[in-house]
Structures are given as C-alpha cells and as structure tokens.
TrEMBL record:
Entry's Gene Ontology cellular component terms: cytoplasm
SUPFAM superfamilies for the chain: PLP-dependent transferases
Lineage: Eukaryota, Metazoa, Chordata, Craniata, Vertebrata
Reactions this protein catalyses: 4-(phosphooxy)-L-threonine + 2-oxoglutarate = (R)-3-hydroxy-2-oxo-4-phosphooxybutanoate + L-glutamate; O-phospho-L-serine + 2-oxoglutarate = 3-phosphooxypyruvate + L-glutamate
Family designation: Belongs to the class-V pyridoxal-phosphate-dependent aminotransferase family. SerC subfamily.
Keyword Transferase: yes
Protein name as catalogued: Phosphoserine aminotransferase
UniProt keywords, alphabetically: Amino-acid biosynthesis, Aminotransferase, Pyridoxal phosphate, Serine biosynthesis, Transferase
Domain Aminotransferase class V: from-to ranges: 40-332
PANTHER family: PHOSPHOSERINE AMINOTRANSFERASE (PTHR43247)
Organism: Takifugu bimaculatus
Amino acid sequence: MNVSDLPSPICWILFQVLLQAQKELLTYSDTGISVLGEGNIPDNYQVMFLQGGGSGQFSGVPLNLIGLKEGRCADYLVTGTWSAKAAKEAEKYGKVNVVHPKLDSYTKIPDSSSWTLNPSASYVYYCCNETVHGVEFNFVPETNGVVLVSDMSSNFLSRPVDVSKFGLIYAGAQKNVGCAGVTVVIVREDLIGHALKECPIVLDYKVQVENNSMYNTPPCFSIYIMGLVMEWIKNSGGSAAMETLNRKKSSTIYDIINASNGFYVCPVEEACRSRMNVPFRVGKKEGDEGLEKKFLDRASKRGMISLKGHRSVGGMRASLYNAVTVEEAEALADFMKEFQKEHQ
Ligand code: PMP
C-alpha cells in the first residue's frame, strides 16, 4: 500500500504507527522473543498473523496439510459445533475420518480407548475448547506420531501449552487475545510447503511465512491490539497466571451449579467442563423458559450482559475469558445464589 491509496494525512500517520506496531510483533516472533505467552514456542515453529478468522483455518488446515501423506485423509474429533464445522469443510479436500462414535449431544469427550485413529492420516484435528457447548480438553490427545492440529480459538493463552506436542495450533484473536480480524497460526516448519495446488494464495502457509504474514495487507489495528493484550498477559504473570485465575473463576460458577440441587444444570460431564465457557440451564434440566428470561433480565439490570446461551443450544452461557476478573465471576455467583433463593 502507498500514500496515494490513503484518503487523508491523518490516515497515513495512523497507518505508519500501526505498521510499526505490527513490525515489532512480527520481529518478536522472528527472533523467538515472542510476545506470545512467555515465548514458549520452539525455534522450529513459525508464527503467522492471518485474516479469515477461525473459519478461514477450517479450510487452511486441510488445504495445507491433508496432502502431507498419500491418500489425503485426516482424523477428526468432533466434540461440538466448531470441530463439526471444521470436519465438514475438510471433506471438500480429502477423506475425513471421525475417530469416535458420533455423539448424540455435545456434552462429553468420548473415552480415548474408543477412538480409531488411522496411522496413515495426514493429521489428527480437535477443538481444544468448544465455545458453544462448553467442552474443553484438559489433556493433549495421543496420536502415535501423527501430526496433531488444534483449534484453540477460545482458550488460547488461558493456560500454558506445550507447543512441541503440536504440528499446528491456531486461534482467532477475538476471545482471549484481542479483537476480531486476526488469527494466530503457529506451525511446525516441516509442515510448511505441502499445500494443495488449489489452495488460495492468502491461505498458503509457505507464501505467508516467506512474506512475514504480509503477502496481503495485514489487519494492522487488530494485530496492534493483540500485541497490547499479549503484553498485558505477560505483565500479569503469563499463561500460568491466567490458568490460576481461570480455574478460580470457573470453579466459582460450577460450585454454585453443583450445589443448587438441580436448580441450575450444566449438561457437560465434569471431566471436560470448560474453564472458558460455562453453559447452564435455569429451573430444570431442559430449562424453564420463563425463569431463564427473568434470569437474563435481572442479570442485565445488574450490568451482567451476554449471558444468553448460543441460539443453537439455548439456556445460559457464562464466558469467562482472560478479560473477565475473579470479582466479576464472584458477582455472577452471588447473583445466581440470590436468584435461586427467590425462585425455587
Ligand atoms: N473456532 C472456535 C473454537 C470458535 O469459538 C470460533 C468462533 N467463535 C471459530 C472457530 C470461528 O471463528 P471466526 O468467527 O473467527 O471465523
């Protein structure tokens, strides 16, 4: 982009500032002194800042990786809306094997003894935290050497992650590390350069890595904000400190649900309850619509908004991303206790 493309001088100044911020971010990742967490990304990984959101990577992952092995097949764990969408998209480019029996409802992670992993799959894919259903992996799946790929869009930097166990990790920034418009993709170097020939150039990891994520005009503002949020995370004690806080916040809410004698119901099995998104019904197992509406109205009068669950599942969902404080989670817990007392 050059000056003549921009409508005003102030815009040019802003552009320069943002480009500087972006360069710094990219340089950090080039040199390994990454602002991503405490820089726990091994040297043989590349970090990209791409457009297209998490959904862009539903296509980007198969387009770049499904051709890693002959046969173009990939294993998918489907534990909620987002991994289901990713698996559906991958089917356009190769054979997708869902490794476990189909789930009737997204409330659990099937026991790994029931998985049939295909040793000739190009990669194994899973969504680390299913944002809509509140199902989170608290373990890294064992793939017996097959490349592991994870969508961490809604729990990125919410806890430490051993990057070396993964071939690729990606995350849209808008939940835990910034605003919409940029997606972080961390990829092991040997997996770059295997894109299918039909891969759109903006999604081609080799092209983007060679151009420092600037093959096309980057989303400067989103990258700048992400840099600030990452600095904030680092200065707050990094992903380990985030984990402590996120455990505390989520257990505050789950404790209320568990002690409510069925007034609040979380459908997700205890072992995989998300620390980021807590879905629950009010009144009874399948939810009492009138009571749920009242719950939302009363909560919003207290300044607690966006508690309505995703339209595909209904009920409530408390999202407890890094930006939510322990005090805010406690305020919700107090309100829940009070509401139960008044309505049961
Ligand atoms: N994956 C997960 C886990 C998500 O929560 C979302 C969006 N909420 C997406 C992917 C899709 O991201 P985007 O809307 O940025 O395409």
